[in-house]
User: Fold these one by one.
Assistant:
Number 1:
Amino acid sequence: MRIAVWVSLVILALDQALKWAVVVGLNLRETLYLEVWPPFLNLTMAWNRGVNFGLFADDSVWLRAVLVLLALAVTAWVWTWVRRDGARPLMQVALGFLAGGALGNAIDRVIWGAVADFLNVSCCGFINPWAFNVADIAIFVGAFGLILASGGKTPRDGGTGLG
């Protein structure tokens, strides 16, 4: 599980360093918008107090605590599953992406009270109204990687059904 630990630490460090650099260093929390490579890449400050795309957004301390605990519980469950499934290198890499991203967003909720989203990518006439962050990308890559690396096992043949 050493690979998973290192990948998750790298993703977590990258996510938190980039968030600090953009939100604090570039002061995006006050400027709210910076053009980087228009129209393809812009920095747009968005504080996500809910789940994906801001669903169930609420400023409640209870919701924040539930979302942090949920991120920790899901990470622990997936970590246990990967270890039990043999901890193949590709699964460990995918787990590292997922865990690093989940922990990065959980840290945001504890420190900022919301997840700091700021990457806005548009292309080819499509104007993307949403912002995301490195942790979101890592969670997606990790989940997709786990699906691919699980080899299509189902609960009947010893897997989790994620594939």
Note: The chain has one domain: 2-153.
Number 2:
Amino acid sequence: MNNLQKWKILKSKMVLDNPWCQVRQDEIKLPNGKIIDDYFVSIKPDVAMVLPITINREIIFVRQYRHAVGEFFLELPAGNFDPTKESAEVAAIRELREETGYIPQEFRKIGTLYDKPSKDTNKIHLFLAENVSKVGEQELDITEEIEVVLIPVKSVLDKISQGEISVVGTIAALFLGLKFITSQ
């Protein structure tokens, strides 16, 4: 029997409302009766992430600079989207095309992940794109400078172990996706 209870929101206000960053401050009542008046929540858009596999069994990664930590990272192609304007599937195919110049022949959703549900509101919609092929050049946003990197499926676990792939969302997506890739 589950005796866990949700927290109750007593008051809520937006303390930062910028197109690039939204933060809400909640006053909450815990199940034990304690009140916390400064619980901050980041309102973030959902993310569409793609695990793209070429016909040669290579995974397509993007290497890009991440300013918050001042480092370059290998990640799976991904991007934010507005579900009132496009579906997660359409956003994922668009992001794959824009960031890498590749499109898939086969495409399916393999999961929904949560990045940081203690403080963030967004979901990561994960798709497996198989038999991808290059159809054009990248179409990058003004803040993007992306190098496309192909890594054989058989080398991915070593890259994770060596710290060359270290972004949590990408690693979670790879472990979930490898189940589908290796079962074929």
Note: The CA atoms of residues 64 and 70 lie 11 Å apart.
